[in-house]
Amino acid sequence: MAKDPSKTEKATPRRRKKAREEGQVAKSPEVAISASLVTVFLLFMVYFPYAFKKLWGFYVAFFSDPFYYLPSNSSNSFWEVLKTLGYLVAPIFLPLLVVGVLANIAQIGFLFSPKTLMPKLEKINPISGLKRIFSLKTLFELFKNLLKLAIALTISYFLVSYLLKDVFKFATTSISTDAYTLLKYTLIMILGFAALSIPIAGLDFFFKRYEYEENIKMSKEEIKEEQKLYEGNPQIKAAIRKKMREMSLSRMMAEIAKADVVITNPEHYAVALQYERGKMHAPRVIAKGVDKVALRIKEEAKKHNIPIEENPPLARALYQSCEIGDFIPEHLYQAIAKIFAKLYREKGMK
């Protein structure tokens, strides 16, 4: 569970990254154990007949030599035994090693965290130790281990019960028959453990995921502090944005002095246009705004004696289709041309 009741929010990506760097991940050792048991069963099914044949051939060759007891040959005999055992054992341990590594990689990916190797004082703190003893994790581990013990005892009981029926026959049967019987029960035992370890591994994995998510939860204050640390104080950022808007507005108001006309919707919209004949292919929007900004544009226009034309549909169309610095679109050429023609007539221009 979350260590602090105030930690009710899901961890942020940065918190997850930090937890991973510290070696705090959702990993279940039961997954690797289950995968190893399944691998052992498959190896016994596929590899054991070959290994048994190889071992039997070595046994016959070794003990058929009457001189193997001689001291002069003891060193060679020892290394021969060691080499043969190595050949037989390596094909078993290497796949188990690979499966164990892959089972962990499948859960957490590639991870090397030196911080997990550092000693932690909290681990020797008696108060922390008592908390761990009476934690949900400890209760789950106890339940899991009792379940594994019950499964092991159940499988062992039935195997031994069946095996005792045949144990008295061992004296009357051949060694190969006895070996086959033992191998059969060994395979049944491994298969039983492997099959029953899969649901235990699944249960443990989901509990580890749940426990991990609870442990890395954050409080609302921690999320705010993280945002301040990595993204800056929201209040400062808001103040900066406000200042930038004010500066942008001041620059735009300064440009209105260059305008040739301001198109308005009397109450809401205002768009200032500039057109230099012979230099521009079409009028250009140098200022626009709504409500209070529109009112300021009209005031600046009056201050510089710039004509103000009331045309609500055209003002809305210009505001919605153009950004500051854009030339007006072609479909508005005719409407704008009429306004400029009117202005030229009033000024006595041709």
Structure notes:
Helix 5 packs antiparallel against helix 6. Strand 1 and strand 2 form a beta hairpin. The chain contains 11 helices and 4 strands. The longest helix has about 40 residues, at about 175-215. About 65% of the residues lie in helices and about 5% in strands. The protein folds into 2 domains: about 25-215, no CATH class; about 250-345, 3-Layer(aba) Sandwich (name from scop). The two termini are about 85 Å apart.
Strand and helix layout:
Elements: H1 13-21, H2 29-63, H3 74-108, H4 126-133, H5 136-167, H6 175-215, H7 220-231, H8 234-255, E1 261-264, E2 269-274, E3 284-290, H9 291-303, E4 308-310, H10 312-321, H11 333-347
Parallel strand pairs: 1-4
Antiparallel strand pairs: 1-2, 2-3
Helix pairs in contact: 2-3, 2-6, 5-6
By secondary-structure content and strand pairing, the structural class works out as: mainly alpha
Strand order of the largest sheet: 3-2-1-4
**C-alpha geometry:** rod-shaped
Number of helices: 11
Portion in helices: 55-70%
Give the distance, in angstroms, between the N- and C-terminal Cα atoms.
83 Å
- Would you count the extended β strands for me? 4
Largest sheet: 4 strands, mixed
Summed up, the domain count is 2
Mean pLDDT: 78
Radius of gyration, in angstroms, nearest whole number: 42 Å
Instruction: State the order of secondary-structure elements, H for helix, E for strand.
Output: HHHHHHHHEEEHEHH
Estimate the strand proportion. Answer: 5-15%
